[in-house]
Amino acid sequence: MIQDPIQRHKRILSPIWILPFVALCIGSWLLYTSFRDAGIDIHVHFENAEGITPGKTKVIFKGIPIGTVKKIEIDDDMQGVNLIIEMENRSDALLVKDTAFWIVKAEVSAGRISGIETLVSGSYIGTQKGNSTETATHFQGLEVPPPLDQATPGLRFTLESDTLYSLQRGSHIYTKNLQIGQIEDYALQDNGKILFSAYVQPQFAHLIKNGTRFWNASGLSLTGNLRQGLTVNIESMASLLYGGITCATHDSLQTTSPAATNSHFILYKDFESAEYGIPMTLQLNSGDGIAPGKTEVRYRGLKVGVVKGLTFNHDSFHTVTAHILLDPRAEPILRETTKFWVIKPEVSITGIRNIETLVGGNFITFRVGKGEYLNDFKEEPDPMPNQVMREGTTFRLKASDSGSLERGAPVLFKQLKVGEILDITLSPKNKGVQISLLLYKPYDKLIHAKTIFWNVSGVQIGGSLSHFKVNLASLQTMLAGGIAFISPPVPEGQQAVIPDQNHSFPLYDDFSEAVQANPFLEPPGLHLKISTAEMPPLSVGSPVLYNNIKVGKSLKFTPQPESDEVVIDVLIDKKYAHLVTSTSRFYNLSGIQIRASLQGIDMQAGPIDSVISGGITFFSPGEGAAVTDSHQFRLYKNYHAALHTDDTQITLFLNDATGISLQTKITYQGIVVGTITSIDIAPDGKGILATAHIQQDAVKFFRSTSSVWLVQPSITLQGVQNLNTLLSGPYIAVHAGKGPLQTTFRVLNAPPEKIKTLPGLNIVLETARLGSLSKGSPVHYRQIQVGRVTGFSLSPTRQSVWVQVNITPQYEELIYKGTKFWNSSGVQVSGGVFSGLQISTESVEALLKGGISLATPGDESIGIPAQDGDHFKLEATLNKEWLNWQPILPAPVERQTSVPAEKNPKQPIKGQEDEADRYL
After folding, report:
1. Measured between alpha carbons, how far is 776 from 772 in angstroms, rounded to an integer?
2. How many Cβ atoms sit within 10 Å of the Cβ of residue 758?
3. Which structural domain, as residue segments, surrounds residue 105?
4. What is this structure's pTM?
5. How confident is the model at residue 348 (pLDDT cuts 50, 70, 90)?
6. DSSP code string of 558-609
7. How many domains are contained in the chain?
8. What are the strands, taking DSSP E only, across 795-880?
9. Residue after which a domain boundary falls, among 615, 643, 671
10. What is the pLDDT of residues 212-259, one digit of tens each?
């Protein structure tokens, strides 16, 4: 079925027309806003567009962007560029005729860095609103920022100067070292002057009065020449970098009216030219090197005043008064205890000081004091002490003199500088010097009442020639001196005593002196005392040796008035202490000890350091017990005295001391058993008294019947006796006797007869005259010597001479009862004038000394072998028949002796034959 259509009425406006309507509204709004917010195009002319980028470079007003550079055009005359800038609509009020535009970019100049933010964001254009009411769109850009806005509160005035100095825009204005303003701008005037626009902050504006003086305080100024002198001014580091102006108002001008805006002032070269300052006077010993108008007063390198004039004083020393004008900023130095010095060039071992005065001339400096105001001073005689810039504690030392110490010399602890010398002055009673030290914090805690100080100035030479050591604490202490210290450890459980301000420590000349006064500084070891009646040439530190190895040293020497002796304190190193026992013997080893005689040269010397500085050595015979500190020993003169200290001493009397010396030996059968130790005139003046030391094992030979005689050379026509003593020198021989021990003997000139029995056959020859025979005359058999004459004497009846003869043991079998002896001395002459002369002699020795010959028959007349003590006749002439005897002698048989066996041994004891030679 077909439905009927439904009819609807058509609407007048279709909903589709809503969209064009909305678009129309939006477009109208955009048209309105674009008209409302449309920018303002302006033109700014600059010399160049360095750093400007179209579409990027902004125009900034008080840190807010208000425009953008749209385009850069070169002007028609090619003299610059025009920047077309689109300014925001809201900046319309800024665009007046005197609005200032300038380019802001990074700038580095003396003392400042500006526009550093442009290194990242790029350059921008700064803006400052003008005061005009006339709008404008064309502007001339500035090369530099304009002065502060005139609407900014504060005092503005102008300064006129002959030159710019080192001032610049932004340079500070100071009063009493306080920054109160700055230079806004400057310009060259038609008259050649520089006109500065100055600004002072409102809170300081009242300080500027019509009588205020301004002077340049910027940078470094150098005036004058090398011939007439140079003036060098350096005000401060800030003014050196930024430049600056100082101003001040003298007390007499404080009543003048305050300066008004746009007031005009003169800018002077310096405060001297401004003729403004605080006057003071300084009495000088001499005006040498002081030049008015040039000599400065300086403090830590800064100029604070100048000498304006010199006047002579009418006193006995003709001193000079310097009239000084001080910078007003230096007014606080004018106090009662302020000290002034004149700084001059000084040449010393530490170098050249104040070398700057060679060019700039002498100057005056000071140390700020305290007290009431004072402007009249006297020059101090000593140079100014160093100004200490570190905190610390002051201590005082006392010494006999200052040595090479100087102010500023270091104070050392373990070679580390922990302080310095502040001052050196005379002690209150002028008996020494007083030294003030400053110990820096925290090192001042190292000092307590037991601290020890010593001088380490110069070069310290220690040790010995065999161990040479040079100690330089530092180059500074070698040249300028220095002080070292050590603080002994505080015993556990105790607290260190802190010295008060009045405490004075002694200053020792060196460490050795400090050790002597404070023995605990010595290394550990065994402390001994050695006494001596004769002090050897020792010194503190002289070595103590053992087998030529240094095992200790001498510490000090103490005289003993009650005994006229000296006690030597020595220290034995701990590792060598066991070498010293109760039996140890110490003796002097100083220098070189030489004892010379014909018996030899005895030289005693230790290591080279003991030769130069003296020394002590020791040895320990036998076993002894260990010793403790303060054990006392004796110091012997030399090694021999120490070695023979236990020997027995005997006394010898001699007729004279010819050939006797302190080296003369005493022998027993050729073995040395003692030595002469002293020789002096006998108390009665009749002879010589000698003292000898005898070894303990030889004392038994010195008994009441012992014989002692002097063995010395004897030269006669008959021969030479004791020839060996010509080289070795005389000596004293002893023959052991019997009876009790004895210590006093008389020395004979020859051995006694009773001990002259020698090994071999001892017989006696009887003759009417001795002739040329003497002791030692030879006895020959077939011109071979078989014996010798040992002595002679008158017979008991005095009718003949008995000649003692000794036949040596190997030839005693030649002698029988029938043996014939004749005198063969001299020369035998036989013959006649016509038959000729015959000259014969037994031997050259017999010719000189005389001699005896013998012959033994070969028949029954030979008889029995001779015995000791047998007598024979000594014939005066030779029977020629005796020369023809050629007996065949039987083998030797044992003979009966007429003397005890111990006095006539068949075999000679070793050394006894030599002893016989010595007797003869």
Report:
1. 11
2. 24
3. 40-140
4. 0.39
5. low
6. EEETTTTEEEEEEEEEGGGGGG-BTT-EEEE--SEEEEEETTEEEEEE--HH
7. 7
8. 801-807, 820-823, 828-832, 836-840, 852-855, 871-875
9. 643
10. 889 888 755 555 544 344 555 554 455 555 568 888 887 767 777 889
